[in-house]
Fold each of these.
Amino acid sequence: MNARTTLVEMARHNLSYAASGEFPREDDIFRVPASNYYDEGRWKLEIDRVFKRMPLLLALSCELKAPGDYKAMTAVDVPVLMCRGKDGKVRAFVNMCRHRGAVLMPDGSGNANRFSCPYHAWTYDQAGALVGVYAAEDFGDIDKSCNGLVELPTCERAGLIWVILKHDSTLDFDRFLSGYDALLEQFGFADWTLFDRRTLEGPNWKIAYDGYMDLYHIPILHRATFGADMPNRAIYYPFGPHQRLTFPDPSLAEKAEDEWSTTHLLDGVWTVFPHVSIASFGGGGRSVMVSQLFPGKRPEESITVQNYVMQTPPNEEQRAEAQAQFAMLEVVVRDEDYATGIAQQKALMTGAMPDVLFGRNEGGGHRFHTWVDRIIDTDDEDLNALFESG
């Protein structure tokens, strides 16, 4: 089945629920121990067994368009250097010189033919090979072919770039993505433009992420900004650990299926386990916000990088509209979602409530927390089988 056919089936399924006045619900209420949101031991397990073993969506292809384009960032305390080589392939490395471990490039982006260590000027090419040793005659014999940058497993699909922080991981990207990338490919992100980016501080990463996976709160928490007329019922489509969150688009009912545009079929929120939300606006066509969530320095903290991405470079009028929309989204997330989440964090840390509840209408949370538990409980050698089983 091709991706458009799948999207049409989803839309058809959504409309059938709209016609019936019903929507799918889980079998029962789901409980998550409240301590999962603040216990330090649990938090360390999530970092070590989820964030350092799962593919993380660290970049958009449009950030690394040309050979030599690079992006250096710190992901869960791991310095990462991504670069598109002359062969067009994106590679990721531990951002660490093989001489004494100095960080090669500061966090940021640019274009470079070589990467030279600021400590002793050892130099690497775009493919991570060691090509120069400063004062080599004084240093001593060294096999350059065995001392290139430590490469990290990397996958570029659908205009998005995933990196596994564990350099010796054998996790299969196809099994992890579970066919979800074929649907994300319909956006055409490889040709889009990164318009703007900002970083927000929030509560525990799961409290922050929970909010991206339900509509139940939208008409209440966001009534003063955009949510007053929005639905509070969501329909979820899981693909392995990833989930699309959507609701019926009544405008589609007025058209024949062959007239349904791909842009409208892509509306909704696309969550990419374990830490990314892709929120589509304006009929899925002109802009999306890609939110990357990372644990902070303590269990009760997180960092979210908001990337506002546009299908085409905006003209002057579109730029003003985009700036206004992105500013509104900052207010929504910072002053509504995360302000509420930070207060929620403090309340949970009193220990007065044993469990956090997810209703039958909050299936996204059911599946997300179940996957976090399953991955924590699965050893390295069994991860591929876990994703194979779904």
Amino acid sequence: MARKPGVMFVIAVLLMPLAISACSQEEPTPALLIIDHTCTELSQIPDEWIDSVQADLRLHYAHTSHGGQLTTGLSRIEAEDPEYGVNIGTRNLPTEAGALCIFDGQEHESYITPDLYWESETGMNMTRNVLSNNPSINVSMWSWCTQLNSYSADQVQAYLDSIAVLEAEYPEVTFIRMTCNAQAIGSEGYNRYLRNEQIRQYCRDNDKVLFDFADLDSWWYNTTLWEQATYDYEGHTVPAEHPEFHGDEAAHTTYESCEQKGKAVWWMMARLAGWQSGTSAAESNPGVRISSLSQNYPNPFSASTSIKYTLPRECDVELVIYDAGGRVIRTLAEGAKSPGTHTARWDGRDSEGRLVSNGAYFCQLRGPEAVQAMKPMLFLK
């Protein structure tokens, strides 16, 4: 892909070991679930939940060439470790036992542009046909190509509205919203960023499942640290595909990028199957709400950031900010809190009112069911 010369990429390094990276997981579906770069450590998913995905979930996946990064990644992961078995059928749903079975495309199309899934009545009917003729399918998702480089807010709202229509018609199917790849820079990249933010906000406001493709594009793990690539556009910091993913080994990117997204698919499917960190398949009940901590927004931030957390019942909690060395910087909430969703704001100041230094910080929710709920944050003055 051609790139404009002279664009300065900024690589933000997140000082966080992979072993403690926490996915933006809110509550068991159908509540908010955000799948991003922190959802890529397969070793954290118990084997029993991989088995549960393969036994219980069937995925309908429609996409153009960029979306092939997910299926390429899944296939490469399986080649490395047969435990992560997949069977991807082109325009059909496989029935292989012990594999995640995927219906790839529509019944009579394999390259699925917006009008062939959600943007036209013909496309909506194609999606309906797949779901009606394959009643075992219980997850469906469609991937952007580069449309959001130019789409308007109204066009993105039409996408969100169409998926909501399908959702109402097929309540037994979980529909996954997606963001658009982060390859574009300049004005197109900025437009894409705004439209991706529109999709993210919709999912936050309506408790939907989001596969954050763009986030997975911009973050790269360098064996010890997470790095995010951004560029400046008229004073706005815009995430962009990390330079380590610049390539054309498959679906306009590198194999490493494909595998990162494939790992995130497994994480998402395990969560949809009912997996919650720290529980076994026998112990977990997807219908039981647990305490949860959302990723702060915005992130990175310079002035202030919002942090949401959800409680299933009244209980004592602490919401604490730590620096990269594990020192307590500030306690944002403490004591008994009512059930429901709460929002705290952090202005980048410590408990003495002093502005903290640039760098990585961590927010932890401590309570009856969320002792390990922790999110990374990046403060940039």
